[in-house]
Amino acid sequence: MQPVLFGLFLFMYLLTVLGNLLIILVVSSDSHLHTPMYFFLSNLSLADICSVSTTIPKMIVDIVTHSRVISYVGCLTQMSLFIIFICMDDMLLTVMAYDRFVAICHPLQCSSNIKAENLTQISEFHLLGFSEDPDMQPVLFGLFLFMYLLTVLGNLLIILVVSSDSHLHTPMYFFLSNLSLADICSVSTTIPKMIVDIVTHSRVISYVGCLTQMSLFIIFICMDDMLLTVMAYDRFVAICHPLQYPVIMNTRHCGVLVLLSFLFSLLDSQLHNLTVLQFTYLKDVLISNFFCNPAQLLNLDSSENFFSNILKYIIAVLFGLFPISGIFLSYYKIIYSILRIPSPGGKFKAFSTCGTHLSVVGLFYGTSIGVYFGSSVSQSPTSCLVASVIYTLVTPMLNPFIYSLKNRDIKISLSRLHCRKL
């Protein structure tokens, strides 16, 4: 029965994900559907995708590996994510009922309220395409679809390997699997919309759609940022305080660190939204990128709003300076401890555990700093587009390869998983 169950649940899972993705893409690409009802519907579809993705992939892996074991931290994480998205479904259904109540019982107030919400009097933004040449569109479509699928499958493989191998149920790989999940979510907020734009030859995104895309993108990118900082702290404790490591990085503390990372990311997203909603005049409706890049969206403000400027500085300090400072401080302590090890072999062994993390940190911060500085200094739209692709797509795509090629434990687990299937 195992192959039958595997095929059945895999088919149902893919049908669920693709069906809800189709709803999101149709609503986002058709300006006639940019209404409150379909906005809530697209968010309901996104919540449905996330809810099934917290349970079904793990069950499919259990069927393949003939294992029914889940770690304590993994169980708490799965429960937390499942409750978040199921509760999101519940709240959205309530909001959709209220929307229908207002539309039917107070139709005149409904239209005036919708207009009043748009403080900037702008209903849509125009995004920048990679090429206007019709012959290039199939090439771009195939290239970005391949890169997107490679990114999603590569990071899914990391999650499945970590969850299925009990030898990898350690804090470092727990954080790594959460990093892979954040990478999947971050690319899924930008690349599918870009692929649809290539197919439909449209570069338009609604005002609400732009704010939604920016909010989700910030949540998952900031989650990457926070998790890289937490992973640096994990390496600091493992190398500088090895005896206290099991006590300090116990399962409860690891779960709390991931939860705090998510809450900080949510706060960052809301602060960006608050900043954009303070805008009274915009320079242009053209965003020089293929998605609603927060850095370029903030640069569209033409008013001198003191409150908005203060918020920008708070965001920069809280979610830029603090995480980078935490990583630098952790590695300063790590290097100091490694230099005190007498044997060269001991030094190499200690530092080798940080190699993959340092590679990912360098790739993430190098490209992100390049995008933010490039958007404010460079006037070339092409350079901004290329930098954004590296930042939003290439970096998450390379992360699984960095961890699988440079990490001995991941290689061994991949071979074990392959042997089980055989």
From TrEMBL:
Keywords: Cell membrane, G-protein coupled receptor, Membrane, Olfaction, Receptor, Sensory transduction, Transducer, Transmembrane, Transmembrane helix
Transmembrane segments: 6-26, 38-57, 69-88, 139-161, 173-192, 204-223, 243-267, 310-329, 350-373, 385-405
Record bears the keyword Cell membrane: yes
Entry's localization field: Cell membrane
UniProt xrefs under InterPro entries: GPCR_Rhodpsn, GPCR_Rhodpsn_7TM, Olfact_rcpt
Any one Pfam family match given in the protein's UniProt record, by short name: 7tm_1
Domain of life: Eukaryota
Domain G-protein coupled receptors family 1 profile span(s) in chain numbering: 19-109, 154-403
Mode of membrane association: Multi-pass membrane protein
Principal subcellular localisation of the protein: membrane
GO molecular function, one term: G protein-coupled receptor activity
Cellular component GO terms held in the UniProt record: plasma membrane
N-terminal signal peptide: none
Family: Belongs to the G-protein coupled receptor 1 family.
Protein name (database record): Olfactory receptor 18
